[in-house]
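Q: My collaborator sent me two sequences in one message, no labels, and asked for predicted structures for both. Can we handle them in order? The first one she listed is below.
A: Yes, handling them in the order given. First sequence, followed by its structure tokens:
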Amino acid sequence: MKSFSLVLFFLINIQAYASIERDREVLLKQNPKEAVNQLDIEKYPGVYDFSDSLLKELDSGTGTYRERYYTRHDDGYISFNYHFSQDYQAPNKIQSFELKFLNRKDDSYHDFWYALNFKFTTAEYSAIADERTSSSGDSNSVANKTRLDNEQTISTIGAGLAYRFKALSDVFKHNRFFEIITVTLNYNLHQDSTDNESYQGFGYSAEYSLTYRINETYFYGGKINYNWALVEREAVDEEKLDDRTLVFGWTSLGIELGYTF
């Protein structure tokens, strides 16, 4: 009898939770971003405080909350990013300028976003790739030694997915911190200043960013980013694939300034 009561109690709680989730989604769908006002927030605090989505700041003078806004209706991000080498002695060995877009469907209350990024990178060859060995096994050729210090340029367009969450909010005791993990598949156009040849090929990027929401519209943050790319150029005569292929892999740090809508 006791076991039956526990099972019944468990089933009732599941049903109640499912009902709350259903009511929450119905309510949110009836309230587009423009319709969420102070009265809605005060009337349904359990809904708008779900997953710490309501950002609010306490006015110590009046004892009331000010700047209350609901982040579940964020539809997109646009941000400008500057990346640099993790080598603190020479951070300019790698420099990237990136424009990044994140977008979420209007009727989605999940934390997955579509991602699109455009990036331009300049770097020393030795900072983003290992010393190259030709198909003959010679890694000490004049071209290879010259390439190590030469500047490489990579133009990248990427598309993928991002996930937004708030694991560190409790650590910082502030709910304006958001974390985003982004993974994109990239297409790269590369210019090697050693032989002035153009390369192209695919790769990917994986990124973790920690952002701080300044207000309803703007945010800034820091990030760590890993990139990998395999590029090749057209063959000359009977040139082997190994001799016309470059592989890059590098980690960079970055800062970000963005706009939310």
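Q: And the one she listed second?
A: Here it is, processed independently of the first:
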Amino acid sequence: MCGGTAVVAPCERYITVSETAPQNGDHTTPIISAALEYSLAEAGEFESRMGKPGINLNSADFFMHKNGTKKKLGIGLSAAEAVAVVELRLSRAGLNGDGLCRKTAEYAHIIHHRTQGGIGSGADIFCCALRRPIIFRNAGGVPRVINDSTQDSIKIPIRMVWSGIVSDTRNMIHKYNRWLETGGAIAEEIRRKTAEVGEKLAPLWFTEDFRRFYEVFDEYIAVMKECTRLAGLDYWLDCHTELDNWARKFGGRAKPSGAGGGDMIILIGDIPVEELHRDIFRIKCQV
């Protein structure tokens, strides 16, 4: 939302959604309810005749069970819910192909943004709906996919690992926004530096100039650490330091995913992830 540039890639975890008889909504989440209620112009004529669907949705892939406790993974469950319901409604009304993906992203972003109280850039929505790695920017509330070619793929090897720690992303966003509002010239300067180095780094994920990638990546991490320290955010935890130190032994890196503070950790480079006694998640780098 502050004009920064993000690279987002889908991971191989899935929601399964199917149509059932219309239900009363007792077993739906706020996002699912909003996605069912929102008016979709392309589905209007069809739904006026056939009605809106009931939803049977299985999101088990977005949770882990550890020591008898069910924990939500920080891989964009609410974004996936919005995309799944909107795509089902549009596809049953006859949309398909690339047009279906793009319309799904546009509608799901509006629905998710409103339901979440206006927070979030929408990057996870567009990545999920388009089913490919994207370079994304949201400036002034206008989301935009910058790499519009469907042939783009991330060249550097990446995987994800679960930290086992649940991150409060919503609170971190609110805290960051408050810091921007009250931090004056220093906050604005750090925000500008973060946006500039992020813009330099984004296209390097899609090239094979690994030397340059790591050079700019280290610059990016240094700026992010400074930014989140000044904003008072628990962005980089001990688990990130531990995995980064380990990855660097093999020429790689590790970093927090998204807002940081737990949840998922990105492992970067040709490193022996099989040696880790952790839950490893594949990322769909290729289109």
